[in-house]
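EI: anyone free to look at a 225-residue chain?
SC: sure, send it
EI:
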Amino acid sequence: MIYYPIFLKVKNHKCLLVGAGDVGLRKLKSLLECDPAEVLVLDTSEPNAEIIKICQDKRVNFVKRAFTPEDLTDRFMVLACTSNKDVNKLISDLCKKQNILCNIADLPEKSSFILPSVIRQGDLTLAVSTGGCSPAFTKKVRRELQNVFGPHYAAFITLMGKIRPLVLDLGMETSHNTALFRELVASNILDELEAGNIDRVEELLTQILPDELLPCIPELINDLI
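SC: here you go
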């Protein structure tokens, strides 16, 4: 099956997680990184120490009980991670009827979306998926990519995030801005960040940026490394 790649905005949305075992806990941690308004967590077992710690987060509401259809009310997204296939199927069927995004652990055919393996460096996010065919191989590729995309990528994205609005505020033509951004990306700035040569980064910015932005360079490179 071919999946349509997409990044979802869950910020300020209410989500539901059913099943707080190892898989559910891992998905809960990942979900909280994206700042949902609330995550209702349901499990029939007593919460372990890690769940109790996570529940200190005001966005997390843990309730020890079984799932009921009413739990889907006003939920943007549902993650079902129980070991009970009947419960998982029920959640899948109800979500389909109500047009709620749903992921069923280890059952991609019952899910409206699957969760890729993710590498994050600051605002840079890389998602890897084999379409559910081989999660083990997906993890292998992720590990390999982690060795390539180090913290200097996060620093570069932070730098570009600072530069972009300043350039756009100059009111230059789109073609000019496009050429400038491409020149920045093609430069050795990324390599110099990896090497920790912030002075060299400053030199390159001085050569590339418009004269109007040169006074901004000290602020642009502040705390990059």
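EI: The longest helix spans residues 151-169.
SC: 👍
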